[in-house]
Amino acid sequence: MSVFRCEDGFTTVGMVIALLVTLSLVFTAAQVYRLNAASSKVQNVADAAALAAQNEVAEFMIIVHACDAVVLSLSLTSLVATGLGAAALCTPATAAASDALLKAGREVARARDGFAEKASAGLDRLQRALPFLAAVNAASVASANDRGTSNYLALAMLVPAEGEEIAVGEAAGAAELEDAVDQDAEEVKRAAEEAERAAARANEAKLRGFEHDCGANPSYCMYERAQSLASLAGDENPLFSSVDTWSFSVALERAQAYYPARLALEAPEGSSVREHARSELRKRFYSFATEEVGRGYVHEEEGSFEALFPHLPKNTEEMRATTLYTEAVYPVTRNASGSFVMHAWAGCPVAVGAGSFGSIAQMEAGSYPVCDRCEFTAASMGKVAAASTSIQNGFEYQYEATADAASEYAKARAELDPLASEVKQQAGGLFDRVEEALGAVSGMRIDARPPGSLGVVVLAVDRGREAASTGFESSFVRSTGILGARAAVSSATLLAEPANEGANVVSSLLDGLSGEGGQAVGVLGAVLDCWSALLSAYAEGQEVLDGAVAEALDALPLASASGLGTWAAGALREAVSAAGLEPAKLDALKPVLVNSAHVAQADDGVVSARLLFLKEQAVANPLASNDVFSSIVSSFEQTAVEGIESFEGTLEIAVVELCEGGPAVTIEVSLPAAAKHAASDFVQRIADGLRSVYAQMTGVRAWD
Questions:
Q1: Contact 340, 264 (CB under 8 A)
Q2: What is the reported pLDDT for 386?
Q3: Strands of 356-358's sheet, edge to edge?
Q4: Is the distance from CB of 106 to CB of 570 less than 8 angstroms?
Q5: pLDDT in tens, 398-414
Q6: CA-CA distance, 105 to 74, in Å (whole number)?
Q7: Which of 551, 548, 533 is closest to 579 using CA atoms?
Q8: CA angle, corner 281, sides to 278 and 284, nearest 5?
Q9: Which helix (H) or strand (E) holds 358?
Q10: Cβ-based neighbours of 141, under 8 Å, separated by 6 or more
Q11: Contacts of 350 (CB under 8 A, 6+ apart)
Q12: Over 60: is that where the pLDDT of 619 sits?
């Protein structure tokens, strides 16, 4: 039997040895886990440093969005001011404001060009400083984690290491719009002034016609007379309360309904032959009037007016020029002396047995004697409408006044319509150019692909030294030995997160600019208010643009007799609405951790290639020693310090000065708190520290 083996079971010595081996393995595994956990702390620090470094890129993009918003809003403000100026040309009341608005449009365009140029240069300077700012922020976060024996260093490299130069395109169509307005302004203004005078005459004539037709109710007017004399009501005798909804066709149709009704209601006012004769002549007149007024018409459309209000005879002389004078409808008889006598109607007692009929013209030509019963003469017919045409309580009086007003209205419209057409054609062309320029406004925008747009890679190391057994002393594990420097690589990139946070941040920046709009009054104040509102259009799009234009139009007294001001306001609104301005994509940019290989693979730069090579070597041969790390640190260092050489405490991006007399607003960026206290050789010291750690580790441990 062996001390280690027994056929009947196991020995005490064997049992003890098994337990000791087991315990040693357990404590050794636990110590390995503790060592790995202690070493992994540097990875957490590297991750935090990568997120901090990439956050500088996210904040830079917010500044880019703010500058882009200013450029866009200035472009919109310039075009809107020019469009408002073109609209103001269409009325004499706003012609003076037009000059100021067109001038403001040009000044805002110049301000935009100046701002865009300065902003692109300022953003270029700022993006050159991004590698330094990211490195300082990463190092600051790393050093903030120093606890106990920990001593962290971190160096951040933005990918790509250099950004693309920021350039601003041209505002297509804006210059052509300004030239077109300058060329057509005087002609539009002249035609608008002449149209306004013609429109004033037309409106005065229309108002006069409206008053005589129904506007004077309950005083004498066609409506009141038709109601009282012919019992007309409802659709045959409508009442309008406003000249804006009334037209001359209403008066004509009322007259065309009135005379048939009077004819149907006509009856003698007494039983005498003379009264019967007068009633028959009135019937003859109403029948004639029904036919005559029925020939009338009113054709009114936008840009044209034609009307015919047939005039009715108001005396014997005018009656002789009508068919009342020539129609052969009156019975003729011979008296006792053999002379021909004409009667007012066949019911005259003396007209019994009349063998022929004649006209008033024949009666006057033949010098017929007057019937002693009906007393019919040419004057009898001439007097039928004489009284009601000469005094206000007669329907014919109101009708004639309305017909005269329609004639004056037609003359004024004949002058107005070609002038209005000329204004609409020329101003409409300007509004078309406004629409085209608004559609092309995206050509002058600020966009950036700065250093770090693909991500950031951070090299971090903990130079602190501590005993391997610290916190885990045991007889089963050797207590001697020191944990050396621990290192890690981390990487982060920006992820667009659909949320309101990005828009809110940009909006809060722009709120500080929009508050400057109220410092001026008059036209300049209106332009500044418009710009203040249009700053919001960057994040909210077409709705804000429409609202800003509507508010600006409401501030202009564009109402006019010719209606050209109202037309111009509508045309400008349509041109602006057709722009279809979409809100800028302002998703919140959030730094997120990713595998450093993904960031390096997205870039074709030398440093990224070296980093990929290092990772491949580390995976293929973890114990191999090479100098790739040293060269990467040097590349990090060179990129980080190049852009900060002339960077002071703050960097002025650009100054916005809309126009002469307007406020000046400065957009500037301050150094992060950590960068303000960093010396110019800060990055060099970090790089030197990393290189010294690498020198200690060469051939012993590869970077993970």
A1: no
A2: 85
A3: 340-342, 330-334, 356-358
A4: no
A5: 999 999 999 999 999 99
A6: 9
A7: 548
A8: 155
A9: strand 356-358
A10: 45, 48, 49, 52, 154
A11: 333, 341, 343, 371, 372, 373, 374
A12: no
Amino acid residing at 591: P
The whole-angstrom separation of Cα 146 and Cα 149 is 8
This model's pTM is above 0.90: no
> Quick one: which of 60, 188, 173, 88 has its CA closest to 449?
60
| 699, pLDDT greater than 50 | no
Tokens of 448: 């950036």
135 contacts 585 by C-beta, under 8 angstroms: no
CA distance 704 to 697: 12
User: Which residue reads 């010294």 in tokens?
Assistant: 692
CA angle, 104 then 100 then 191, to 5°: 125
Contact status, residue 43 vs residue 487, Cβ threshold 8 Å: no
- Alpha helices, DSSP H, located in 622-679: 628-642, 673-676
pLDDT in tens, 182-235: 888 899 999 999 999 999 999 999 999 999 999 999 999 999 999 999 999 999
Query: Which among 309, 304, 310 is positioned nearest to 414, based on CA atoms?
Result: 304
- 449 conformational bin, left if phi > 0, alpha if psi -120 to 50, beta if neither: beta
Farthest-apart Cα atoms in the chain, separation: 188
Return the structure tokens found at 552: 């600006």
**What do you get for the CA distance between the two ends of the chain, in Å?**
53
Is 207 buried (19+), middle (13-18) or exposed (0-12) by CB count in 10 A? middle
The amino acid at residue 472 is F
Handedness of CA 592, 598, 602, 608 (dihedral sign): positive
CA pair distance 326, 306, nearest whole angstrom: 30
d(C-alpha 300, C-alpha 302), whole Å: 7
Token pair for 531: 């710009």
